[in-house]
Amino acid sequence: MVNRDRHEITMEILKKASSGKKKTEIMRIVGISSSQAKLYLPTLVEKELLQIDEKNNYKTTKKGLKFLEQCENCPLFRWNKHATFKNLIK
Q1: What proportions of the chain, in percent to the nearest 5, are helix, strand and coil?
Q2: What are the angstrom distances between the C-alpha of 2 and each of 5, 8, 22, 34, 38?
Q3: Could you give the 3-state DSSP secondary structure of residue 50?
Q4: What is the residue-averaged pLDDT of the chain?
Q5: CA-CA to 81 of 20 to 30 Å: which in 4, 6, 33, 53?
Q6: 7-35 tens-digit pLDDT
């Protein structure tokens, strides 16, 4: 498995939570530990990219979906980590 940076993990959480998911379900699907979840989820809620509903499900907000869309359109996020620099400048 390739190491993921915090941006990739954040984007993956926002994608998977778009339909509303429990914390443990997000952890399992995204492949993060409970300590990572304790860092990411409250931060994303604080930044208003995620919200917690009455059933304690995390759901991506409109702001979070807009953020995701902007990130997916950014060429830096489409960069393949496995590509060599030489291949990138061709």
Answers
A1: 60, 10, 30
A2: 10, 11, 25, 20, 22
A3: strand
A4: 86
A5: 33
A6: 889 999 999 999 999 999 999 999 999 99
Please tell me which residue, 9 or 84, carries the higher pLDDT value.
Answer: 9
Tokens describing residue 55 = 């059933």
Look at the block and give the residue holding tokens 């869309």.
Answer: 69
How would CATH label the architecture of 6-75? Orthogonal Bundle (1.10)
> Higher pLDDT residue, 18 or 89?
18
* Res. 85 pLDDT band, cuts 50 70 90: very low
Q: For CA atoms 43, 45, 50, 52, give the dihedral sign.
A: positive
Contact 44, 10 (CB under 8 A): yes
